[in-house]
Amino acid sequence: MKGTHDFAPTCLRKSRKVRKNAVVTPARRSAGIVRAIEAPPVIGAAVTTATRAVERVGKVALAAPMGGRVPVLRPRITRDRLATAVQDRRVLLTGASSGIGLETALALGRAGATVVLVARREERLNDLAERIRVHGGEADTVPADLADSEDADEVVDTILERHGGIDVLINNAGHSIRRPLSRSYDREHDFERTMALNYFGAVRLILGLLPGMRDRQDGHVVNISTMGAEIGPGVRFPAYLASKAALDAFTASAAPETAHEGVAWTTVYMPLVRTPMVEPTRAYRAMPMLSAREASQLVLEAIVDRPRQVSTPAGRAASLLYEISPGAVDAIVSFGYRYGVAV
Length: 343
Ligand SMILES: NC(=O)c1ccc[n+]([C@@H]2O[C@H](COP(=O)([O-])OP(=O)(O)OC[C@H]3O[C@@H](n4cnc5c(N)ncnc54)[C@H](OP(=O)(O)O)[C@@H]3O)[C@@H](O)[C@H]2O)c1
Prior knowledge:
By secondary structure, the chain is of the alpha/beta class. The protein folds into 2 domains: 22-61; 73-312, Rossmann fold, CATH 3.40.50. It is 54% helix and 10% strand. The protein contains 13 helices and 7 strands. It has a 7-stranded parallel sheet with strand order 3-2-1-4-5-6-7, sandwiched between helices. Helix 5 crosses helix 11 (292-305). Residues 94-101, 119-121, 124, 145-147, 172-176, 197, 224, 226, 270, 272-273, 275-278 line the site of NADP nicotinamide-adenine-dinucleotide phosphate.
């Protein structure tokens, strides 16, 4: 029977209805419970402070400063530093129509880059290009489905024709699929779809634009990966993580081959970010996440400092743990998966 297992107080159930799509953070939830049980104000204040502190720790673990090379303080990306890095340079940004890409595009436009915007939704790209131009920036749009090999090749041809080449390529367009193996047996296409965009789409752009970078002895390829690929075990994401890990491995091979020719490669291990990509996943709603603008700072950090990797404290710590003892980490994640703790 509907509602049989819902032990939440009535007022909480009501507020859930009212704010069906609101993000229910632990602080909000505990505040609701404190109100519902009519706890004395001093207890309410203590509970709220404690949960806010826990939330803050979670956020710090995702966003706190940590360069990819050594765990040092994350450098501040000021507008001046960004302008010095990108002014009058041609930056190709895929997945510019939404989320992290959109915020990154706006920052790049403001800093004086010529931003070439790629995604499927042409209208959104045109609106974004207009916003960039209104603020004095330069933008071009090349609508394309990068999962389609012909489209991806055409993007390269169009860009070479219009701009002569690209100085910074940001492979940000991505498609995520969250589905456990038990529901994937007849869905080989999930594995093909994620590879088509997250791996082959990016590789086609790299292969098309890298020769120009090597000739000019200057270029930068930034790949937006995920903390999941950095860490290792990630239940429910075999298709997505494999496609991201494939590009990480490609980059690990390509970087030393081209380093002496002035080409830099950065892999950004992005943590959870509140964008349309994660919206359908209810389990994420109460989790600490970066905003799209905060996440774009990691991309800007990559562009300005050109480190080999950009990571976070949480990602680094978990990947180190996995390196030391993959079996133990697998056991913990497996326990979480079986008993509904792991997302
Ligand atoms: N959000 C997270 O928690 C998170 C965590 C780790 C890593 N990431 C990575 O961050 C990147 C940006 O994701 P986001 O969170 O900003 O997601 P998003 O808001 O859903 O944006 C995805 C972007 O990719 C574009 N795209 C999707 N399919 C495409 C295709 N076939 N051809 C061309 N463009 C395509 C979309 O534009 P159109 O629909 O207009 O084509 C959109 O601009 C992705 O690579 C994702 O894997 C995200």
